[in-house]
Specification:
Order of helices and strands: HHHHHHHHHH
Strand content: under 5%
């Protein structure tokens, strides 16, 4: 195919507009190719044909960019859920399950970057700085779920605490995230089982139902840790 030329006969190539998503993509590619984070915004921009002004139009630092990557994982999950016509008719338990399945499918599609970013500081749970935005969004999502569930309960003492449930959902997400990081099963099937069992356990605890599922969940975790 002939290349486009300008009036002077030189090859011309229109530069793609710089967007927030394109900067994020360039950063993730850089990390995976170099197996290290960029040393400076200047060097990162120079290597990728950006000006520093273009970078700072969207992010004030690499720390802010890393946080936004997790926010994007969350936002894309919600967008996918909202596109499903069946989602609104789901129970709160089903909605949380669907959220986790979708969220971890997105993480799996970006597993190499996620593993690098969480293991970079040698202790994923010791440094949760990059997950702060995700924590806020996850707790907000869980709060909406428990409010929805409480609307169906006419007796006040049966209604559940939004604060406790949202914090439990966040801790649950961290647990599943750690489980997924260590999961060596084909297609991460064990993570899917962990999601189902942990969600059922949390809802059973909040609904004061029999403890069979809690015992079952404990046995599952013990089996996985012993393998």
């Amino acid at each position: 195919m002939a290349k486009a030329t300008n009036k002077t006969g030189k090859n011309s190539k229109k530069k793609e507009p710089i967007t927030k998503d394109s900067v994020i993509s360039l950063y993730m590619e850089y990390v995976l190719e170099h197996e290290a984070t960029p040393k400076s915004v200047y060097k990162f921009c120079k290597e990728n044909g950006l000006s520093e002004d273009e970078f700072y139009d969207f992010f004030g630092s690499f720390e802010g960019l890393r946080k936004d990557i997790w926010n994007r994982f969350y936002n894309l999950t919600i967008e996918l859920l909202e596109k499903s016509p069946e989602f609104e008719s789901f129970t709160t338990r089903e909605k949380l399950l669907t959220f986790y399945y979708t969220f971890f499918e997105l993480l799996t599609a970006n597993r190499s970057y996620v593993l690098f970013s969480l293991k970079e500081d040698a202790g994923m749970l010791k440094n949760l700085e990059q997950l702060k935005g995700l924590r806020k969004r996850m707790k907000s999502f869980a709060t909406e779920l428990i409010r929805e569930g409480n609307e169906d309960k006419t007796v006040n003492f049966l209604k559940q605490s939004e604060t406790i449930f949202s914090e439990a959902a966040w801790l649950q997400l961290l647990f599943i995230l750690k489980f997924w990081i260590d999961d060596n099963s084909p297609k991460f099937e064990s993570t899917d089982v962990a999601i189902e069992k942990s969600v059922n356990t949390v809802f059973d605890l909040f609904d004061n139902t029999p403890l069979e599922r809690i015992v079952d969940f404990g046995k599952f975790i013990w089996k996985e840790k012993m393998q």
